[in-house]
Amino acid sequence: MNLPNKIPVFPLSNFIIFPKTTVPLNIFEPRYIDMVNDSIKSDKYIGMIQPKNISNEKKIVPELHEIGCLGKITSFNEANDGRYLIELKGMIRFEIIKEINSQKKYRECEVNFENYLDDLKEQKETIKFSDLELIFKDLKTLFEKKGFIINWKALEKQSLDEIINALAMASPFTLEEKQVLLEAKSLNLRKSKIAQIISTYNFDQYNNNTIQ
Length: 212
Description:
The protein has 2 domains: 6-120, LON domain-like (Archaeosine Trna-guanine Transglycosylase, Chain: A, domain 4, Roll); 129-211, no CATH class. It has a 5-stranded mixed barrel with strand order 1-3-4-5-6. α2 (129-145) packs across α6 (187-211) and α5 (175-183) packs antiparallel against α6 (187-211). It contains 6 helices and 6 strands, in the order ββαββββααααα. Helix content is 37%, strand content 25%. By secondary structure, the chain is α+β, with helices and mostly antiparallel strands.
């Protein structure tokens, strides 16, 4: 797989994509319609990244997190009103080296994939399924309490890394927590971070119940 060293980036707030997950996107801003057009003509790659949440500062060009995920357009449709409806598949995480000055309306960055090449492999990491079952049990409870619906039967048919990444992305965690999960180097570490986050939610709920 030939990875580009320069990619267009889509700094979408409140949205995050993980490797081996597929998400639908509704593109309507002119600059991002340009970005999709250019991407379709070349390698179909778009870098998804979170802008940093800088409180009380309304910056025209928000700062970006250092780590994002490269997505590939796998489906493309144009709506009657000019919007683009695309599906983006997460491929591999990247680290931003620097932003590139260009005449384009959208932002471009020079990126490095070196630390995340394992994202392209089938994961063979040993994770105890007893641990996973416990996480799933706690996650199911959390999802239900938050009103989230997940097709668990379909999820269980996927590979281990796909399951963990899909749950990390779909979970009712904050964007800051999801960014921590995205940056977790290995699958085992991501699993541990999910468990830690769930435990804080359970702890908060316990505290809230005792206060009431």
